[in-house]
Please model this.
Amino acid sequence: MIVTVHPSTIKGNILAPTSKSSMQRACAAALLQDGETTIYNPGKSNDDLAAIDVIQKLGATIVKNDGDTLVINTSSLKQRGAEMNCGESGLGIRMFTPLAALSSQPITINGTGSLLTRPMDFFDDIFPLLGIEIKSLAGKLPLQIKGPLQPADITIDGSLSSQFLTGLLMAYGKAATKPATITVKNLKSKPYIDLTLQVMKHFGYDIVNNNYESFTINPKAPNAEPIKYTVEGDWSGGAFLVVAGAIAGGITIKGLDVQSTQADKKILEAVRDSGALLSITDTAIEVAPPLSLKAFQFDATDCPDLFPPLVALASYCNGTTAIQGVNRLAHKESNRGLTLQDEFGKMGVEIILQDDLMLVKGGTGVKGATVHSRHDHRIAMACATAALKADGDTTIEEAEAINKSYPDFYEHMKSIGGSIEKLQETISR
Model:
């Protein structure tokens, strides 16, 4: 799909999308629940749909799915088939693989797109310590595994992604018959572990966080009582809305919890530091552009998904913005450091990469151009957001990449005044 974004002034109210981080964790916890789970405000992104498909492959039954409510039953859990596919979800593959290993039945774990090139040798190293047989394609997908997983005291490296730890915490929570401890070195993205622990606590698990250096998983008391869980709004997708308001007009965003454990709520700090007009209440976030935006410094090590919206913001800030954490970007849907440098370079924005630092030279003008998503949802949204105040039209190729996390993004931008053409068909304001 090709989308063209015309320079626009936006205004009005908008509801943030559903968090796929929260939704996928809820699906995983529901899979492990003995009985019925009702998920309210379920997501519908490609990653969310992949999670629903995976839990069905692993034996869950979908009782109801009407868009507003998802009811999952696991009272008679039995693996269906010899393969599960996590789509292009990095969280999905890293979280559901340990859960699949709870079974003694062999299963092949696969994915699509960029997931096929992401490193999975973590499982090659750790699974044999837990009694799991595993074969991989030189540390890449597909994985062939056979459990059952047997919780043990182990030490893991958390520097590549916290998502591996999320999967182990959930699997240990289900399988533990006595306390077991996972020690973690160099843990990154700690707020995402906070989200995992929050979801697990809601489902009745007892996990002791020892200052993020180790986690002790205690056996879970049997409980077949129905569980209800509401998926919160998504700060990762909402970050683009916040930035859009800061550069292209005053908007009010609802549905984002400022008390959330999601790492990407830190976008508010960057927007405030840029000088944008910001008002925050328990129910809404109002954001508008000032007379001029100023460069800022930001550490995105624990929230690397913020790089794309941060670059869109920095492009309009006078001076050089410094963003730390570039080393976290290599194994995303694209190599985001290089991709942002290339695609925003087409829009006249100079980006310099220095080791773990990204320097964005902003305030010199953003020009309309033809850019490519590189099949990366956040690159597509970053380019579209920056295009709102460019000096000409911006055309985004492979623009459907947004479906991975925020399929309504273009429609939402339209609803607040964004002028967008999709497949030569104008999406009217």
